[in-house]
Amino acid sequence: MSFIKVDPTSDFSYHNLPYGIFSTPDNPKRRIGVAIGDQILDLSVIKSLFQGPVISKHKDVFDQPTLNAFMALGYEAWREARRTLQVLLSANESTLRDDVSLRSRAFVHQSAATMHLPADIGDYTDFYSSRDHATNVGIMFRGKENALMPNWLRLPVGYHGRASSVIVSGTPIRRPSGQTRPDQTKPPVFGPSKQLDIELEMAFFVGGGNQQGEPIPIQKAHEHIFGMVLMNDWSARDIQSWEYVPLGPFLGKNFGTTISPWVVPMEALLPFAEPNPVQDPEPLPYLQHTDAYTFNINLFVSLKGTVHKVTVIRSTVMYMYWTMKQQLAHHTVNGCNIRPGDLLASGTISGPDPESFGSMLELSWRGSKSIDLGGGETRTFLKDGDEVTITGYCQGDGYRVGFGPCMGTILPAVKH
């Protein structure tokens, strides 16, 4: 355990040690920190304490304003850095514990910090890897007989999103405007989206990378998965439904995507790995792996309207059909090059029960049902002023490995 006191319900236990980018009022420089309890350990202050064979040659990565350079060092460097942090923060190690001056410079209270995007995100890909979500949406738009498209059980379906509009938790979201066609007998109209939605997702940051033309084999995919964040892929359903044929999402998605600021390393999540879902039909050989890479992460979405804050979704990453290793292997099998800091998202995570549906599109079943927020307030889709918060954690024996909040508030549309 650590000499830093950590509440058992804190997301940031000694078993976690997630990475993030922060600044403070007295030091506006963006720098790399590690969360533990209610504290942030500033790695730029203690970089000289990393004496391992890899990091000792690259200590300058902890002076950078993003995690990209650290991610680029690769798998062995990440493991080495984590081992060093576990030693330095342990209750039995005196280096930090007993050096009052160093501790005063190295630790910052989280309440005094401003969090920023953890990486310079060069590219962002969003998958569609929850069978229940794909089935629900398919039933709504195509009927039960054609709910899943023929390719869905054969490969991880995905699309390329807009990296420039990925934002950190706490940043407000402006309601988008665009073309919609509410009446199929009339021409389309322009105006603010009336069906603004959420999507409960998780995403992972890529580290290392590959040369163009050289796929990442699934047996080595884990060496390129740095860590995970929570994600809300805000979606304007009415804009999306009119524009998506034939090339898929565009303006209905690219106006904003929120992620949590702390990146939980895969080493912290591995104790919570569970057997992968049974996949039938059996995937092609390049998508096959037997090691457990499905994670028991509890997920929650709360919605605050004008009065109450209500948990409207309870789900888990266990509902995913395609694993992150399969997503990454498929993404690069054609020779596509992946770079450190690229973000790959799960797609909406939905389960078999209505409480576990990962979007308001499903919760309201395309607007036909009301979502109760208490006090007589209901929703089918989001209203201006609504605040959405995603949280998630793995539950250990007396500790948690969590992600912190992924939150955003809806602002009114720009007047055109």
UniProtKB/TrEMBL annotation:
<keyword id="KW-0828">Tyrosine catabolism</keyword>
<feature type="domain" description="Fumarylacetoacetase-like C-terminal">
    <location>
        <begin position="125"/>
        <end position="392"/>
    </location>
</feature>
<feature type="binding site">
    <location>
        <position position="253"/>
    </location>
    <ligand>
        <name>Mg(2+)</name>
    </ligand>
</feature>
<dbReference type="GO" id="GO:0046872">
    <property type="term" value="F:metal ion binding"/>
</dbReference>
<feature type="binding site">
    <location>
        <position position="142"/>
    </location>
    <ligand>
        <name>substrate</name>
    </ligand>
</feature>
<keyword id="KW-0378">Hydrolase</keyword>
<keyword id="KW-0585">Phenylalanine catabolism</keyword>
<feature type="binding site">
    <location>
        <position position="199"/>
    </location>
    <ligand>
        <name>Ca(2+)</name>
    </ligand>
</feature>
<feature type="binding site">
    <location>
        <position position="201"/>
    </location>
    <ligand>
        <name>Ca(2+)</name>
    </ligand>
</feature>
<feature type="domain" description="Fumarylacetoacetase N-terminal">
    <location>
        <begin position="15"/>
        <end position="118"/>
    </location>
</feature>
<dbReference type="Pfam" id="PF01557">
    <property type="entry name" value="FAA_hydrolase"/>
</dbReference>
<keyword id="KW-0106">Calcium</keyword>
<feature type="binding site">
    <location>
        <position position="348"/>
    </location>
    <ligand>
        <name>substrate</name>
    </ligand>
</feature>
<feature type="region of interest" description="Disordered">
    <location>
        <begin position="170"/>
        <end position="189"/>
    </location>
</feature>
<protein>
    <recommendedName>
        <fullName>Fumarylacetoacetase</fullName>
        <ecNumber>3.7.1.2</ecNumber>
    </recommendedName>
</protein>
<keyword id="KW-0479">Metal-binding</keyword>
<feature type="active site" description="Proton acceptor">
    <location>
        <position position="133"/>
    </location>
</feature>
<comment type="similarity">
    <text>Belongs to the FAH family.</text>
</comment>
<dbReference type="GO" id="GO:0004334">
    <property type="term" value="F:fumarylacetoacetase activity"/>
</dbReference>
<dbReference type="GO" id="GO:0006572">
    <property type="term" value="P:L-tyrosine catabolic process"/>
</dbReference>
<feature type="binding site">
    <location>
        <position position="126"/>
    </location>
    <ligand>
        <name>Ca(2+)</name>
    </ligand>
</feature>
<dbReference type="GO" id="GO:0006559">
    <property type="term" value="P:L-phenylalanine catabolic process"/>
</dbReference>
<dbReference type="InterPro" id="IPR015377">
    <property type="entry name" value="Fumarylacetoacetase_N"/>
</dbReference>
<dbReference type="Pfam" id="PF09298">
    <property type="entry name" value="FAA_hydrolase_N"/>
</dbReference>
<feature type="binding site">
    <location>
        <position position="128"/>
    </location>
    <ligand>
        <name>substrate</name>
    </ligand>
</feature>
<dbReference type="InterPro" id="IPR005959">
    <property type="entry name" value="Fumarylacetoacetase"/>
</dbReference>
<feature type="binding site">
    <location>
        <position position="244"/>
    </location>
    <ligand>
        <name>substrate</name>
    </ligand>
</feature>
<feature type="binding site">
    <location>
        <position position="257"/>
    </location>
    <ligand>
        <name>Mg(2+)</name>
    </ligand>
</feature>
<dbReference type="InterPro" id="IPR011234">
    <property type="entry name" value="Fumarylacetoacetase-like_C"/>
</dbReference>
<feature type="binding site">
    <location>
        <position position="233"/>
    </location>
    <ligand>
        <name>Mg(2+)</name>
    </ligand>
</feature>
<keyword id="KW-0460">Magnesium</keyword>
<dbReference type="GO" id="GO:1902000">
    <property type="term" value="P:homogentisate catabolic process"/>
</dbReference>
<dbReference type="InterPro" id="IPR036663">
    <property type="entry name" value="Fumarylacetoacetase_C_sf"/>
</dbReference>
<comment type="pathway">
    <text>Amino-acid degradation; L-phenylalanine degradation; acetoacetate and fumarate from L-phenylalanine: step 6/6.</text>
</comment>
<dbReference type="InterPro" id="IPR036462">
    <property type="entry name" value="Fumarylacetoacetase_N_sf"/>
</dbReference>
<feature type="binding site">
    <location>
        <position position="240"/>
    </location>
    <ligand>
        <name>substrate</name>
    </ligand>
</feature>
